[in-house]
Task: inverse folding
């Protein structure tokens, strides 16, 4: 019985393709040591995140660890309305370099493991209604 739990757990420890927006290319990597890495590239942007994940039954939760570098923050859930003037940074009152990448924040971001995909649970309801949920496979 113990081996089957281990095998089930390991089926989702891998690289996941994430489709958030048209023309973006993203990968969420879950590692054996309960760390994760996220990278996304679009036409003119690059985003990343790193942090820790935990599992409870069929649900995994991701929490980012903010870097000690001045970067703009992208909210993975899209629950924070962003304008250029309201953008938050990783360090209070800092001004990121214009060519810097953006930090994507996962804050208690929950996903249900469903066979060969992850179902994101925290997406902004208006965005989800208009465009559907992210595709993660």
Result:
């Amino acid at each position: 019985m113990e081996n089957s739990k281990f095998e089930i757990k390991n089926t989702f420890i891998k690289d996941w393709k994430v489709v958030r927006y048209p023309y973006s290319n993203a990968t969420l990597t879950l590692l054996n040591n309960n760390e994760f890495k996220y990278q996304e590239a679009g036409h003119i942007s690059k985003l990343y995140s790193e942090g820790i994940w935990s599992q409870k039954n069929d649900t995994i939760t991701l929490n980012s660890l903010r870097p000690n570098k001045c970067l703009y923050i992208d909210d993975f859930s899209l629950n924070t309305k962003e304008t250029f003037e309201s953008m938050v940074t990783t360090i209070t009152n800092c001004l990121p370099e214009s060519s810097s990448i953006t930090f994507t924040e996962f804050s208690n971001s929950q996903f249900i493991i469903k066979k060969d995909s992850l179902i994101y649970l925290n997406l902004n309801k208006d965005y989800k209604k208009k465009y559907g949920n992210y595709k993660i496979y």
Q: What stands out?
A: DSSP finds two helices and ten strands in the chain. The chain has one domain: 15-136.
